[in-house]
Amino acid sequence: MKIDRTRALGAFAAYVRPYDAADPKVRLKIEHTYRVAELCERIARSEGWGADETLLAWLCGLLHDVGRFEQLRRYGTFDDRRSIDHARAGAEVLFEAGGIRAYLEDGCEDELLHTAVAWHSAYRLPETLDRRTRAFCDLLRDADKVDILRANVQTPMEEIYGVSTAELRASPVTPAVEAAFYAHHAVLRSLKRYPADHAVGHASLVFELVYPESRRAVREQGYLFRLLDFPTDNPDTARVFAGLRDHLRGWLEENAR
Q1: How far is the C-alpha of 26 from the C-alpha of 159, rounded, in Å?
Q2: Which terminus of the chain is more exposed, N or C, with fewer CB under 10 A?
């Protein structure tokens, strides 16, 4: 297998060119893609992976969200519940429609890449994955989660989720979402009922990071606590977020060394 980084970057640039980069949502996903690819490379290096495996990890990051652009064009949203499964859509673009060959001539890693892209946003990975494929899937999922924190701080939540500022500031937190956070696992999409639930759900992703370098990146970047400094006029929501912040500070002290 030979990955040409310049060719892959050119293929991605050509793929997104028809979409309006002036649209903040398109720009968000373009920038997110490049950051996730860089994080994949960083995590792979921290684990001592060889040059070829590290470059393959980088390519997983570059490919992971190609389905987002058609999702946005066709449905005007990034909400999979109201549109399509963006990860599966990306796998279709790349492997059913043949888009992968613009990035990589050699097809020997197609199965691994397909699995990594198709499952990167799933609540849980299949138990049947072989050890190597799981390592790449875990790495990609970690990198994506780490940068989601940045994206949700740098881009107004009103813009991401299509809600008004008034709705955001009045939002309660669903008790089941709060309970999932304290149980230290990701929050099911089906549990999220209010805008504030998304912030709690994104913060809870930190508990599921697999690689130590991923947790170190979260602590280093500081976006987690900016996300949890949630703007609210709801006293109950303010109380909930204060508790979440305190809990996560203690958890990171133990788990991000």
Answers
A1: 12
A2: C
Burial level of 22, CB count in 10 A (0-12/13-18/19+)? Answer: exposed
Asked if 170 and 147 touch (Cβ cutoff 8 Å), the reply is: no
The model's pTM is: 0.92
Q: What is the pLDDT of residues 50-94, one digit of tens each?
A: 999 999 999 999 999 999 999 999 998 888 888 999 999 999 999
Phi, psi of 191 (to 5 degrees): -85, -20
Computed on alpha carbons and rounded to an integer, the radius of gyration of the chain in Å comes to 18
Instruction: Tell me the C-alpha distance between 21 and 54, whole Å.
Output: 29
Residue 49, both tokens = 């992976």
Cα gap 225→228, rounded to integer Å: 5
CA atoms of 201 and 42, how far apart (whole Å):
25
Q: Which residues contact 6 (CB under 8 A, 6 or more apart)?
A: none
CB 213 within 8 A of CB 47: yes
Closest CA to 142 of 168, 113, 116: 116
Cα dist. 255→4, 23, 138, 214 in Å?
A: 36, 38, 17, 11
* Residue ranges in the chain assigned as alpha helix (H): 5-16, 24-46, 51-63, 67-75, 86-91, 110-118, 131-154, 157-161, 165-170, 175-182, 195-204, 212-221, 223-228, 235-255
Which residue carries 């913060």 as its tokens? 203
